[in-house]
Every structure is written in structure tokens, then in C-alpha cells.
């Protein structure tokens, strides 16, 4: 087993939450060119599918996928009307202990497929 001390790589504090939501499946759900200048956004797909566009690319999200949007990142998304997703989302702010942590956090992938 590999021992890994995450505290040495990611040293930060959550300082604020704008929202924590659970959304039920809705075939009409969509967002268009959404950005949040003050908060990071994290989303987790519980079930179903959604279609997203960010960084000039299209993505299909499915159960277990994780989204991460840094502050100021534009993104567009909509539910698959034939299999609408349900999801958790949270908008939060952080205080970083050092610039190295900020750089690593900002390099975090926007989509993690499970």
C-alpha cells in the first residue's frame, strides 16, 4: 500500500459556501454560458446523463462523473431529455496556504469520468 500525505500537496481551507444543491431529474434542465466569478463549482452526477460544453469541447456526463469549474469558467449544460440526470452541486470559496497549492488546484481536471 502506498502512503500519500495529501496535506503536503493540497493545503487550503473552505471559507464560504454559496450553495449546496441536490437536483432531481428534469428533462428541461439547462444552463447557458454560466460562470461564477466568486466561487468554485463542483458537481456530481447521481444518475442519468447530461451534455456539457466547456473549453470549446462537448462532453457527455453519466452516473459517477465529477465536474469541477474554477472561478470564472464559462460552461453550458443540459439534461439528456431521454435520460435526464440528477446531481449534487456545490459552490464554494477557498483560502490557499501557498501559491503551489493554488496552482495545483487550478490545474485540477474539469471532468473526471468514472
Describe the protein in words.
The chain is mostly beta strands and 114 residues long. It has one domain: Sandwich (Jelly Rolls). The chain is 11% helix and 52% strand. It has two helices and nine strands; from the N terminus they run αββββββββαβ. It has helices spanning 6-9, 99-106, and strands at residues 12-23, 30-34, 40-47, 49-54, 57-62, 66-69, 75-79, 86-96, 111-112. The strands form two sheets. It has a five-stranded antiparallel beta sheet. The chain has a four-stranded antiparallel beta sheet with strand order 2-7-4-5, with no helix packed on it. The protein is elongated, with a radius of gyration of 15 Å. The protein starts with 5 loop residues before the first helix and ends with a strand. The mean pLDDT is 92.
